[in-house]
Amino acid sequence: RLARACHQTGSFMRAGGFLDQATVPFQLELDIYTALHGLTHLNTAQAYAALGQCYADLKMHDLAFRYLDQALKTTEQVKGSNCDETGRLLVEIGNTHRQRGDARNALLFYNKALQAHNKAVSPFQRQVTTDMVDIERAQLDVHPD
């Protein structure tokens, strides 16, 4: 319950724009899940992802990548590489690359996300369409002509 409360508190703070402060409850959530489950549990992966997204919002890209990469590794261990959760994390990593101005790496991660989502969900679901839009935008960033 405490970990869930930490996640909710961090989410509210992040949504309210209190990004620096939101890292504290997200870190506590991560510490709790890591102590309870280690690195091979979906809750731990989600805690890593929340902290990574918060650091991406703060434009602290190196920290964001560190946490998002660990979230991806844990999710792939628990659920595999062709699931919706993995695809969403690949999109987040792509978004962080794009935010940093690295459209080429963003494009790589968006393509991986599309592959994961194509195998995990119906190709007509919204997430697949969103992945295709992300790919198109990154391609325009790489090749603006």
Topology:
Layout: H1 2-15, H2 19-37, H3 42-57, H4 61-79, H5 84-99, H6 103-120, H7 126-142
Helix pairs in contact: 1-2, 2-3, 3-4, 4-5, 5-6, 6-7
Give an overview of the whole structure.
- This protein is mainly α and 145 residues long.
- 82% of the residues lie in helices and 0% in strands.
- The chain contains seven helices and no strands.
- α1 runs antiparallel to α2 (19-37), α3 runs antiparallel to α4 (61-79) and α6 packs antiparallel against α7 (126-142).
- The longest helix is centred in the N-terminal third of the chain and has 19 residues, at 19-37.
- The radius of gyration is 15 Å and the shape is globular.
Work out the helicity level: over 70%
User: Strand tally, please?
Assistant: 0
Annotation field: number of helices = 7
Q: Approximately what portion of the residues adopt beta-strand conformation? A: under 5%
Characterize the overall form.
Answer: globular
* Uncertain stretches: none
Structural class: mainly alpha
Distance between the termini: 52 Å
Helix-strand topology string: HHHHHHH
- As a whole number of angstroms, the C-alpha radius of gyration is 15 Å
- What is the residue-averaged pLDDT? 88
Largest sheet: none
Quick description:
The protein is mainly alpha-helical.
Name the features:
mainly alpha, globular
